[in-house]
Amino acid sequence: MPASSHSSTSPSQVQRRTVETHQLANGLVLLAEPVATAESAAFTLMVPCGSSNDPASRLGLSNMLCDMVMRGAGDRDSRALINDLEVLGVERGESVGISQTSFSGATLADNLLDALAIYADIVLRPQLPAEQLDAAKMVCLQEIHGVEDEPSQKLMDELRRRTYLEPWGRTSHGDESGVEASTAADIKTQWSAHYRPNGAILGVAGKIDWDQLVELVESQFGAWEPVESAKPLEAQREKLSPHIDFEGNQCHIGISFPSVPYSDPKYLQAWAAVGVLSGGMSSRLFTEVREKRGLCYSVSASLQTQRARASVMCYAGTTSERAQETLDVTYGELIRLREGVLQSELQRLKARIKSGLIMQQESTSARSGSIARDWYHLARVRTLDELGRQVDELSAHSINAYLDEHPPNNFTFATLGPQALKIPV
Amino acid sequence: MKFRSATLDNGLEIVAECNDLAHSLGVGFFVRTGARDETDEVAGVSHFLEHMVFKGTPRRTAEDVNRDFDEIGAHYNAFTSEENTVYYASVLPEYQEPSIDLLADILRPSLRDDDFNMEKKVILEEIQMYADQPPFGMDDHIKALHFGRHPMARSVLGTCETIGALSVDQMRTYFESRYCPSNVFVAAAGKVDFDQLVKQVEARCGHWEPRAATRELPKPASKPAFESVVRESSTQQYILQLADGPASEDADRYAAKLLATILGDDSGSRLYWELVDPGIAETASLGHYEYQGLGMLYTWLSCAPDDAAENFAKLREVYANAEQDGFTDEELRQARSKVKARVVLGSERPRNRLFNVGGNWMQRREYRSVTNDLATLDGVALDDLHAELKKYPLTRATTVSIGPLQELEPLA
């Protein structure tokens, strides 16, 4: 038999794919990356309603609204809505962030347009049934209570709260009093003010026909009325102590420091620096905290970006007796990052980023989310091959120049466990 | 998509689903060993060994292993279950050979004393971490309650005591007996060059000495039980239920998947409408888990402690009604379209196909394409679901309740 299979010895390249864009008269931006070889199509619909839009006495309102819009829309009641999406095979998810509510879904390509028509009902014509308000409230309270039993998540929520000015450090689930106080009128008001096409983005990826998609989106979302909306006001919040008492075997440690947001020209440098800290098992935190000292099972750092601000958030969880050492070693690595990164570290990181980009092509869900996020932050979409070129151009020199300008500094700490730790200053 | 397989002279098998349209490939070494193959003295050794495999070989230090994987941009990891231990990597096609070189090399680890002692600390941290998270170790406990001394009831992690007492010599002995060519196979999916793959594996694993590895397969004899475990610091109450289900070799496992979807999927299921949608439970779900010679139907419910007794009664009612009145065509149609869409969506990533191809080979030494799976799902009829519930009644289950409640009254 001839050995004719294409033996791939040449380096893989990111495919050249185009991203189509179309803006409706009401402001809604439609983006699509057609993928001829896919059998699926996925979408991410971002609506500009996040926890930063919650009134201060109604923390958790946007999250509750997100639950309520799924309880019936257009002609469908709650049960018909969920059932019809399931019959279409839509794998769906909803999430509320600081500035956005995202509705995402993936299904067989043939069912995409039918699914999108249902989502038009969900955002434009939700029934918001008053008799289901109590149920929605209880769902939201369950979420708040559930976090109490998840110490690592609770710690990271507390770290974010301590890192940012109000309202940027909020959690989507809010607090018990905010959820309990919310009325049907509050829900309706929040929906009218923030479920709006100006500022909304619909990203689609997969096996699609662009012209058909534009037509469907124009007909289903075209009547959506724009609303002018005020920006959330910033405020200092009361100073919180770093330690939170918690009964458990482990102590959970969080450290954050300021970074630059996605739209910053130096974002890639900032992101790469965090990658050296915590990307792959040869990264610094994994090597120093876990591999060399066996201090913990879980240690990581990631750059978390909002539109106008960003922070690096680090986490480590360890038994109480070793918590101080874990905190000190982790902190030490953040300080050491000021000295810069090595060429060899960058080389490994680039290899990881590149394979990550290429593998992202294989998921329509990942692509629909990525292009929508790009537009949200940049008001344009970078194709994967453009991103690939930017990664190729990254140099240790440019990362170190960034670190000289923005050395890890102004740290915020949070610890959760049986006893307080000594915070390095 | 094309399935290929080969066997080396020492018995090591290689299987792959080759897809020329893929951009990457997933490759894994699947070892037929896990908690069920352990004894009391070495409880947790399979999982500890999985960590030690990354700690270096005669050719590589632990740092070399991590660095070499990162240098080829691999997305890699490993996991241990009750019956298998899997080491895998997703890479770009040009790194097929280096990824095989790495995986094959680490599958013959040095198991050095210093590394063993250091990694023991990490394992102890992992055990403590899970002890602080729901269901607070009760997932192990409920298996032991339900299946008694059956090997499948063993804990994957082990305990602080068993791990603390484990010696590196015990681990070496376990390794020798389990990681032999007849008990390991290589699976790959995606843009795989199969002819090269066979050569690459042969060059690195062809000299591995053949040896027989056996597994005890006692018939499971389950005995439903009920237990309340008090954990005052919990905010929520957690209720776990374990009932018998089809094993991985049973043809009716597809019916079990559909049945679990109708009754207990995260969304749109009977438990969802009864407990989650009204907000009286945080989560309520049913899943089917299949193993060699034994299957489990596993229920998970979490809610406020005050609502637990009532929710538990509702849960039992949902199951009793299903056993008595069965399901509707509409429910089956909905569950089927959901499960089929998941099969197709999942198949677009080589990494997902790797676990599918590897899992089928592990369990049944068979290859099943996406098309096979879809056709089988289409063939499941309503009567099959009803027969399934007769054979594996959900009302015959072991229950463990964990949380602040002193007692969960099992309402009649």
Question: What fraction strand of chain B?
Answer: 15-25%
What is the count of β-strands of chain A?
13
How far do the termini of chain B sit from each other? 53 Å
Number of helices of chain B: 15
Mean pLDDT across the residues of chain A is 95
> The CATH topology of the largest domain in chain B, please?
Cytochrome Bc1 Complex, Chain A, domain 1
Query: What share of the residues of chain A does DSSP label as strand, in percent?
Result: 15-25%
- Rg of chain B, alpha carbons: 22 Å
Report the principal-axis shape of chain A: globular
Biggest sheet details of chain A: 6 strands, mixed
User: How many individual β-strands of chain B?
Assistant: 11
Low-confidence stretches of chain B: none
Question: How confident is the prediction overall: mean pLDDT of chain B?
Answer: 96
Backbone shape of chain B: globular
- Summed up, the helix count of chain A is 15
How large is the radius of gyration of chain A?
23 Å
GO molecular function, one term (chain A): metal ion binding
InterPro entries (chain A): Metalloenz_LuxS/M16, MPP/UQCRC_Complex, Pept_M16_N, Peptidase_M16_C
Pfam families (chain A): Peptidase_M16 (PF00675), Peptidase_M16_C (PF05193)
Domain Peptidase M16 C-terminal (chain A): 183-352
